[in-house]
Amino acid sequence: MEVVRSAVTKGGHLPYPPRGPRTFQAPPDQHRINRRIRVPQVRLIDENGTQVGVVSIDDALRRAESAQLDLVEVAPTAQPPVCRILDYGKFKYQQHKKEAEAKKKATTTQVKELRMSYRTDTGDIERQIAKARSFLEEGDRVKFIMRFRGRELAYQDLGRQKLVRVCKALEDIATVEGTPRMEGKMMGVILAPGRKKSTKPKESVAKEGPKEPPKSNEPVPASGAS
Predict the structure, then answer these.
(1) Strands 41-45 and 51-56: what pairing?
(2) pTM, whole model, 2 decimals?
(3) Minimal CA–CA distance to 89: which of 62, 61, 68, 60?
(4) Same structural domain, 122 and 92
(5) E strand or H helix at 141, and its extent?
(6) Which domain holds residue 156?
(7) Which sign, positive or negative, has the C-alpha torsion 44, 46, 52, 56?
(8) What is the pLDDT of residues 15-51, one digit of tens each?
(9) Are 24 and 63 in contact (CB under 8 A)?
(10) Residues 191, 90: Cα–Cα separation, whole Å
């Protein structure tokens, strides 16, 4: 007779949990709606945005049902809570869209570092400028760094001239944050995307006064002449 051994461990439980359908709980709604609003009175705003005033919760629910919409609690901490009659599905979609746009605007820009030397030739400088242009077009800031070692510190002016040349080559799409300056044994300058707007004041057009009548070439008669 064949003996079937149990897979039960000493603790009395199976070594592996049985497989089965997995269920995921949906995230809770951010707002209480309809029958989940459990307060005696609410300050109601109807589907047209009109301030109805303080009404009972039953009255507010009847108004929402008659409009075939939802009663949504938009300000739960107010006394009494503020509720609006609206399409909750559409309301959640608009809220999600606003949050996505806010996240898109709040994306942090990165600082891309590009290294140069005071001895960098023209070809390498042009390649670094091309890299910087691509970074700036993607919305990133660019920092050019130039390191000086030992006796190279005597050539700071030459390095500064090359950095100024780079800044001028990118001034059509970038704004220079300050001027090239030394930080220890390194000289650097930062460029931000976006060209700086011109602050040149507009020339004011002087208002024309009343025109004087044309002068006549005829001689003016002497006073007292008959």
Answers:
(1) antiparallel
(2) 0.42
(3) 68
(4) no
(5) strand 141-147
(6) 111-193
(7) negative
(8) 555 555 554 454 556 789 998 999 999 999 999 999 9
(9) no
(10) 42
